[in-house]
Amino acid sequence: MTGELSAMPDIDPASLFVTRTAKPKVPPPAKALVFGHTFTDHMLAIPWSQSTGWQAPQIRPYGPLHLEPSSTVLHYAQTLFEGMKAYRDKTGKVTLFRPDMNMKRMNKSAARIALPTFDGDALLDCIKTLIRLDAHWIPQEVGHSLYIRPTLIGTQKAIGVNPPNEALLFVICSPVGPYYPTGFKPVSLMATTEYVRAAPGGTGGYKLGANYAPGVVPQKEAAKLGYSQNLWLQGPEHYLTEVGTMNLFVVLRKNDGGVELVTPPLDDVILPGVTRDSVLALARDHASGKQPIAGMTGKLEVSERPITMKEVKEKAEAGNLLEVFGTGTAAIICPVNRIGYMGKDINVPAGQSGIGDLAKAFLQEIQGRQMGTIPSEWSVIVSE
Ligand code: COI
Prior knowledge:
Elements: E1 17-18, E2 42-49, E3 53-54, E4 58-61, H1 72-76, E5 79-81, E6 84-88, E7 94-97, H2 99-112, H3 120-133, E8 145-154, E9 166-176, E10 187-192, H4 216-224, E11 229-234, E12 239-243, E13 246-253, E14 259-263, H5 274-287, E15 300-304, H6 309-317, E16 321-328, E17 332-341, E18 344-347, H7 349-352, H8 357-371, E19 379-383
Parallel strand pairs: 1-4, 10-11, 10-17, 14-15
Antiparallel strand pairs: 2-3, 2-4, 2-9, 5-8, 6-7, 6-8, 7-19, 8-9, 11-12, 12-13, 13-14, 13-16, 16-17, 17-18
């Protein structure tokens, strides 16, 4: 998918050249991994310039980038990224989970901040070559994977706010286990009323670096009060939007005894998460009877609708708040056990016991498709 720059050369996997490291490292054991702290031996880099289009992709030893101090990324946050994961099963087969969605989202982010777009299939081909080269770095334990971080930055050497005439797309890979240092445990949330993550007409629906740095201070403040993440609200009505770096789901008991799975609708304040989309697809297939999930309630209603803190509080008080969980590539599915809101805590019952029935069922279904124990068209083979 190349947009306005289609006359220029696109990413060409046939011209990929590989320089192997002369100093391969030994991957650490899975239990020693801290999320995002360890990187594999190689990286992919693809330079772009306005005059040449996309240049030959290179796989080279993982290492520092050479950037001029004037590079626009360093001044105006001309940067966007993706998070995707590769899995290795017991037979050694390596797969990616729904990588086409990451390629589409990355191009949407690029178009939003005037960075060059590209052929997503061609980039994916290059990423697969990188993963095959470093496949021995992929931990095989359940809940572990190779986190892949495609990143695109503006590298024009000039201090002026313009579409950059040079850019660099690079991809690094990190073997990972759980995202949170607490492991696969529930998190507590502080509903942030003082700051917003995103606003209508803004860039919250795109995966831009600029959306993340402003979340660090609110996150620190939540941590100081004993909460692990922020719950981001929107508007004077305090609509729930996202959780820390994840999408948000709320499970409510309905008056007729059924269960409603609610997530805020996609708009310009909600990031279109791949795991969010996967949960919704599984839930809808279950609710329609197309593909029932064992052990999950039959009376499930799936709603993409706005939900306010007032409604969550009222449902909790009436005993009808069943579960809250976050979804994201890094965290997969993360149960929530309490929400601090306006000085008081709302306890989430399922979170107290570790994980609720729905969150657990979705986690098992998604992990099964990721690890290859449940056959799925979402799983894309990298090597057999
Ligand atoms: C992901 O879930 O992949 C994310 O991008 C969150 C990230 C900030 C670790």
